[in-house]
Hints:
Glutaredoxin; Glutathione S-transferase Yfyf (Class Pi), Chain A, domain 2; 4-stranded mixed beta sheet; 51% helix; globular
Amino acid sequence: MTAARPFLYGYWRSSAAYRVRLALAYKGLAHDSLAIDLRTGAQASDDYRAHNPQGLVPALAIDGDVLGQSLAIIEYLDETAGGPPLLPAEPLARAHVRAAAQIVACDIHPVNNLRVLRYLKDPLGHDQATIDAWARHWITTGLAALETVASRHGGRCLFGDVVTIADLCLVPQLYNARRIATDLAAFPRLTEIDSRLADADFTKAAHPDAQPDSPTE
């Protein structure tokens, strides 16, 4: 019996869902998807919470189960789906790659995701200019650390010339940084890596503007 295709619950502009789309595309995994509109609060519905009790995107239905948290999903795909690996074989190198990915996923993203930015506005009462300044501050702080990582380990990608999970975190983060007019001049290595990856088929397929729920699609 043919196994069911992976089913991704996501949102076109969610950077966490973007990471998983990149992984699926890089691995060459065809999948189905359903848009969970974060603007309307669809992630808080009982129906969606039955799949992901945390009420966040992404969630991936795969192998008879449902996984949340983008890095956990990507590592599961890397361990089970075959295709080009997203983590090095050597333990110390794997730790470095994971640490770089977590700069984005654990330090930059959590203080800049939609629910946090909305909370800054209501009930805390901050205006949009202040909220954007907040986001840019944490983005540039994290990217400064990643720029150093790239200077130590990088080549065509963040770690040498091979795509890793760290690159799958970098690309969506720079997309989000540009959305709020973050000055990226201090991060030439990161923007060069991003520019090179932008030409790859897997990044084009995963780009927010290429998603069915994108207003520009």
